[in-house]
Amino acid sequence: MNDIDVLLQETRSFPPSAEFKAKAHVHDSRLHDDAGMAPHAFWAREAATLDWMKPWETVCEWTPPRAKWFTGGTLNVSVNCVDRHIHGPRRNKAALIWEGEPGDRRTWTYWDLYREVNLAANMLKRLGVTKGDRVAIYMPMIVESVIAMLACARIGAIHTVVFGGFSPDSLRDRINDCGCKVLITADGGYRRGQTVPLKRNADEALKECPTIEHVLVVMRRRSGVGDETFAEMQEGRDHWWHRLKRQVPKYCEPEEMDAEDVLFILYTSGTTGKPKGIVHTTGGYLTGAAATTKYVFDLKDEDVYWCTADIGWITGHTYLTYGPLANGATCVMYEGAPDWPDKDRFWQICERYGVTVFYTAPTAIRAFMKWGAPFVEKHDLSQLRVLGSVGEPINPEAWMWYHKVIGKERCPIVDTWWQTETGSIMITPLPGVTSTKPGSATTPFPGIKATLLDSQANEIAVGGGLLAITHPWPSMLRTIWGDDQRYVDTYFSKWEGRPDLYFPGDGAKRDDDGFLWILGRVDDVLNVAGHRIGTMEVESALVDHPAVAEAAVVGKSHDLKGQAIAAFVTLRAGFTQSGSLRDELREHVALKIGALARPDDILFSADLPKTRSGKIMRRLLRDIAEGRALGDTTTLADPSVVASLKDQYEAQE
Ligand code: 6R9
Hints:
Blueprint: H1 3-8, H2 18-23, H3 30-37, H4 39-47, E1 58-63, E2 66-71, E3 74-75, H5 77-81, E4 94-99, E5 105-109, H6 110-126, E6 134-138, H7 143-155, E7 158-161, H8 168-178, E8 182-186, E9 189-191, E10 194-196, H9 198-206, E11 214-218, E12 238-240, H10 241-244, E13 257-258, E14 262-268, E15 276-281, H11 283-296, E16 304-307, H12 314-326, E17 330-334, H13 345-353, E18 357-360, H14 362-371, H15 374-377, E19 386-390, H16 396-406, E20 413-416, E21 450-453, E22 463-469, E23 479-480, H17 484-491, E24 506-510, E25 516-521, E26 525-528, E27 531-534, H18 535-543, E28 548-558, E29 562-571, H19 579-592, E30 601-604, H20 618-625, H21 639-652
Parallel strand pairs: 4-17, 6-7, 6-8, 8-11, 11-12, 16-17, 16-18, 18-19, 19-20, 29-30
Antiparallel strand pairs: 1-2, 3-13, 4-5, 9-10, 14-15, 15-23, 21-22, 22-24, 24-25, 26-27, 28-29
Helix pairs in contact: 3-4, 6-7, 8-9, 11-12, 14-16, 20-21
Bound molecules: ligand 6R9.
The site of ligand 6R9 has 23 residues, from helix 12, strand 20 and strand 25.
């Protein structure tokens, strides 16, 4: 029996408690039913909870594969996330409760946030940024990252956040792809007791970024070793955040943005070597972010909400920044690693701030499981009431552990499926409604139409198929920056003659109750510890090394990370395989892309298994990496290659 069948035999079901239901925003099926019949009316109602400067004329214009939402309407995202909370009882409410890895702590009220966002917006203006300009943000997990995003939104600049763990090369490529004018960074950040030299990385990247005119640098390392010499400032180009702040006016008039104006670009991996700049717009994105945050997490004013994602990923955009702040929530933000200085850091934080809603990734849950319950039991987690999971399929064992050890069998778990491209949660339980099953993301969010199709676009009622979204939704991507054709080809060309069907790249199964079980990517995209990485990206980084002639990269299952990277490499003449070359290649990939892409295994080989037309057969490499019997090898040009690879791989293990 394969894993999928084991999964589908999962019959345990966990209904919400009567107590939870009684207080939940949504406690019966009416929202799903009504929104199912009239999705536009549902989304219009949700959009109407935002502050608009000018009302929209049309809810949705759908000319497949192009959708526009709330056309004619205008609004400003920073006004919705900040200004509208400062006139009432939320004015002095904690917006962000921040903790640095070394233990420094600070709380920003909505009023604080309002002041800081205005100042930051004026700093950007002072540096010449105007509406439509691109601004790169390369930051640690500090509140200034959120402030920088909101400041861009305030003046209509388009931000592109680059994960602080990415290499200078990755930063450079993203800045150049969308032509950023300004980069916002910090001198450094903290991770597992080490400092991450962000400004130095940025300087390295900027050697080849002709469009960057100015760099705004936050001084993070003020407490501790920090001084101004950690970052070398380039006269005229670089500016300290805390100094420039003193020189600008305190109020910045928010830009009136069209609902369809671009809010941000976020790069994500696809099946080619080049990451895609996913484009999100203003009105629809914020509507999706706000509505899903409210309903999926049953978010209330009294909640203390903690999403552990880094700001560099879409989850950090939608569920750390825009969704919760649009709802006027109190959010926890933590800078560092979950096991620093000890493996109970997260639970210490939950206890200290009384976290009520906790949203994290399966890879983290599996690590907590491995570390053991005693780290959790040291802390009072009685305030928790909703638990969330995102980023990859959660195995039933991890789900049950989350339910028992963290949630004490009291807290509904929301397993939320979505993507950078979808902008907000698409398939998920609602905690006061859905009887959850461990391992299933359950059913589409109200107003979302998702289904399973076969390769001919026939619907699959029960069984396995390709996930498809059959109706537009407000927070959908609008295009890929600078490559509109790739938008059409990647997402709307899977089913011949059906540009109305969105293809997310995931496979799934539907059970007898109509519940969906996401199985993972069906393309050459890996999911390593919840991070999307294209096999081609890693291959390009490998062949960039002078010793490498050819490389093929596959994912193999990994207990903690979900998937790990296995690389098969052929060397150029004159180079010989060795342990030190293997280490060098692993480091080379980390240097080119970032540590998250460092391969676990590298196998040297004289040849790679190819079809007669020269295509590398990754399917067979996966069989080898996962120690399985080889699948069909009849199309191979030279079947002996793969047999010898398998022997070598096993010898190395
Ligand atoms: C939000 C985010 C998207 C890919 C997606 C899928 C996987 C995300 C999941 C899940 C199973 C879940 N994925 N959530 N798989 N169950 N609850 O992670 O965005 O980084 O773009 O990744 O992650 O394969 O296609 P992103």
